[in-house]
Design goal:
Order of helices and strands: HH
Shape: globular
Structural class: mainly alpha
Radius of gyration: 11 Å
Distance between the termini: 15 Å
Largest sheet: none
InterPro entries: Nucleotide-diphossugar_trans
Mean pLDDT: 81
Number of helices: 2
Number of domains: 1
Strand content: under 5%
Helix content: 25-40%
Oligomer: single chain
């Protein structure tokens, strides 16, 4: 993620959770950290 972030002039933040809380709760936690107008979740 860091290598990709260095290519762009964006504030990029990654959040790692120690517990498997499921995708919905993990995304909700991610949005709490977001400070920008756009949010992208890069999962499959």
């Amino acid at each position: 993620l860091k290598n990709s972030a260095d290519k762009f002039n964006y504030g990029l933040c990654g959040v790692e959770l120690n517990l498997n809380l499921g995708p919905s709760l993990a995304r909700n936690i991610g949005t709490e950290f977001a400070k920008a107008g756009y949010i992208a979740f890069l999962d499959d």
